[in-house]
Amino acid sequence: MTIFAKIIGTGGYLPPRIVSNDDLALELAQKGIETSDQWIVERTGIHQRHLADPGVRTSHLATHAARQALEDAGIAAQDLDLIVVATSTPDYVFPSTACLVQAELGNKGAAAYDVQAVCSGFVYALTTADAMIKAGRARNALVIGAEVFSSILDWNDRSTCVLFGDGAGAVVLQASDEPGILAAQLNADGSQMGILCAAGNVSHGQVVGDPFLRMDGQAVFKLAVTSLAASAHQVCEQAGIALSDITWLVPHQANVRIINFLGRKLGIPSEKVVITVDQHANTSAASVPLALNAARRDGRIRAGDLALLQGVGGGFTWGSVLVRC
Ligand SMILES: CC(C)(COP(=O)(O)OP(=O)(O)OC[C@H]1O[C@@H](n2cnc3c(N)ncnc32)[C@H](O)[C@@H]1OP(=O)(O)O)[C@@H](O)C(=O)NCCC(=O)NCCS
């Protein structure tokens, strides 16, 4: 009998502090940096972002989202045998943020580890958990994408700081004989690291290199559209499904223009595309599970729908997961 990994619960959490484009423009103006709501909306579709207060860490956001997903799934934390957290902004060098979440949830004994694939992190983490369930190595898996991305932004660089936000999204996967995740495919091209990176580290007690996110926006834009389009075709081919059969496209939420280009390239009408970047900005690994959770909870995504989840980001990394909800 084929074992599938089925999503049986979703959750999301956004820190309560909402910063509108106008708020941000005012804050930057005090430092002599010019931006505007109009520029940000025209180039990105972003209207606002949620930002964590100082001291709030990725594990805190992740735990909130996890609790909601567990409640939705109707299972207890102790029933989990796998916890995977996708993040580029872990609380510590170690232990992993997954271990911190495990302790917060009160689970003992589950395998727990982090996945680092930046904005593709959730899709990578979901694929890993799917493979563990299919192989019989886990039955109940918690997969989280969580970031305090504001902690790696250079708040004096207007070309990047306006684009991102903080948050966490989570799903609970369970082994099932009913179809859940149908196909997945992941890719990376490390030779493109220079177009999007935070090339710093802590070593010998000091920050070495540049601790802030740097990006060639136009190069990322082009590569994101072409790689996601190719990945969508590949994952559908793998599952023997036509693109037109997809009920919902849930792409990484970086920029409305990237999402619109992608939708047009794939021939997927805008009514079938979930967009949250306008409200959340780019929350990196949290963006896809936050969008999935929002669309499930507002009744757009229903049981039986076919959703194409897609991530793309630093590394350069990208990938897709096709899931029967
Ligand atoms: C970042 C992005 C919005 C910039 O849009 P763009 O149309 O490429 O804009 P450019 O970088 O060419 O900059 C155009 C001008 O706007 C200025 N500008 C940049 N940020 C600005 C801001 N926040 N406010 C006002 N002006 C800004 C630039 O300095 C430049 O001015 P100049 O023409 O006088 O030199 C766009 O490239 C993008 O979305 N790329 C993808 C980024 C992304 O999603 N990354 C994450 C993927 S995981």
UniProtKB/TrEMBL annotation:
<keyword id="KW-0276">Fatty acid metabolism</keyword>
<dbReference type="GO" id="GO:0044550">
    <property type="term" value="P:secondary metabolite biosynthetic process"/>
</dbReference>
<keyword id="KW-0511">Multifunctional enzyme</keyword>
<dbReference type="InterPro" id="IPR013751">
    <property type="entry name" value="ACP_syn_III_N"/>
</dbReference>
<feature type="active site">
    <location>
        <position position="252"/>
    </location>
</feature>
<feature type="active site">
    <location>
        <position position="282"/>
    </location>
</feature>
<dbReference type="Pfam" id="PF08545">
    <property type="entry name" value="ACP_syn_III"/>
</dbReference>
<dbReference type="GO" id="GO:0033818">
    <property type="term" value="F:beta-ketoacyl-acyl-carrier-protein synthase III activity"/>
</dbReference>
<keyword id="KW-0444">Lipid biosynthesis</keyword>
<protein>
    <recommendedName>
        <fullName>Beta-ketoacyl-[acyl-carrier-protein] synthase III</fullName>
        <ecNumber>2.3.1.180</ecNumber>
    </recommendedName>
</protein>
<feature type="region of interest" description="ACP-binding">
    <location>
        <begin position="253"/>
        <end position="257"/>
    </location>
</feature>
<dbReference type="GO" id="GO:0005737">
    <property type="term" value="C:cytoplasm"/>
</dbReference>
<comment type="pathway">
    <text>Lipid metabolism; fatty acid biosynthesis.</text>
</comment>
<comment type="subunit">
    <text>Homodimer.</text>
</comment>
<feature type="domain" description="Beta-ketoacyl-[acyl-carrier-protein] synthase III N-terminal">
    <location>
        <begin position="113"/>
        <end position="190"/>
    </location>
</feature>
<dbReference type="InterPro" id="IPR016039">
    <property type="entry name" value="Thiolase-like"/>
</dbReference>
<keyword id="KW-0963">Cytoplasm</keyword>
<dbReference type="Pfam" id="PF08541">
    <property type="entry name" value="ACP_syn_III_C"/>
</dbReference>
<keyword id="KW-0443">Lipid metabolism</keyword>
<dbReference type="InterPro" id="IPR013747">
    <property type="entry name" value="ACP_syn_III_C"/>
</dbReference>
<comment type="similarity">
    <text>Belongs to the thiolase-like superfamily. FabH family.</text>
</comment>
<dbReference type="InterPro" id="IPR004655">
    <property type="entry name" value="FabH"/>
</dbReference>
<dbReference type="GO" id="GO:0004315">
    <property type="term" value="F:3-oxoacyl-[acyl-carrier-protein] synthase activity"/>
</dbReference>
<feature type="domain" description="Beta-ketoacyl-[acyl-carrier-protein] synthase III C-terminal">
    <location>
        <begin position="236"/>
        <end position="324"/>
    </location>
</feature>
<keyword id="KW-0275">Fatty acid biosynthesis</keyword>
<feature type="active site">
    <location>
        <position position="119"/>
    </location>
</feature>
<keyword id="KW-0808">Transferase</keyword>
<keyword id="KW-0012">Acyltransferase</keyword>
<dbReference type="GO" id="GO:0006633">
    <property type="term" value="P:fatty acid biosynthetic process"/>
</dbReference>
<comment type="function">
    <text>Catalyzes the condensation reaction of fatty acid synthesis by the addition to an acyl acceptor of two carbons from malonyl-ACP. Catalyzes the first condensation reaction which initiates fatty acid synthesis and may therefore play a role in governing the total rate of fatty acid production. Possesses both acetoacetyl-ACP synthase and acetyl transacylase activities. Its substrate specificity determines the biosynthesis of branched-chain and/or straight-chain of fatty acids.</text>
</comment>
